[in-house]
Design goal:
It is built from three helices and seven strands, in the order ββββαβββαα. It is globular, with a radius of gyration of 13 Å. By secondary structure, it is α+β, with helices and mostly antiparallel strands. The longest helix is centred in the middle third of the chain and has 12 residues. The strands form two sheets. It has a four-stranded antiparallel sheet. A three-stranded antiparallel sheet has the order 5-6-7.
């Protein structure tokens, strides 16, 4: 279990389920509070930095440099997030919640996770 505090975007409404990010000594963790599987994606600060840089550059995930994190949007607006190194763990959310996360990334709300030593 993760004891570090989870952070969500300020663009996610109070009491709403959202994407959450937490950090441990050498890892960044991403989860979705309403994901029925309870999946927690674990990645490196470097891969998380690459993800947030791609989001900030407003580039399509499929057209950008590899981030180590894959994001796919289904036709029904289901968003699936997984680490290339751990394809068996997929965090599932909805497009509206992903968009709130993206707004938070663009506002710099998660930069401190990628700046870890």
């Amino acid at each position: 279990m993760y004891t570090a505090p989870w952070q969500k975007s300020s663009h996610c409404g109070e009491g709403e389920s959202c994407l959450h990010v937490a950090a441990t000594a050498r890892s960044i963790h991403i989860t979705e509070s309403a994901d029925p599987s309870g999946a927690v994606l674990t990645t490196t600060p470097e891969e998380f930095l690459s993800l947030i840089q791609t989001i900030k550059e407003d580039r399509q995930m499929a057209d950008s440099r590899p981030t180590g994190i894959e994001v796919a949007v289904d036709a029904d607006d289901t968003v699936r997030i997984r680490a290339t190194a751990a394809p068996g763990t997929t965090v599932t959310t909805h497009r509206r919640k992903w968009d709130a996360f993206v707004l938070g990334v663009r506002a710099g709300e998660f930069d401190h996770f990628a700046a870890r030593p």
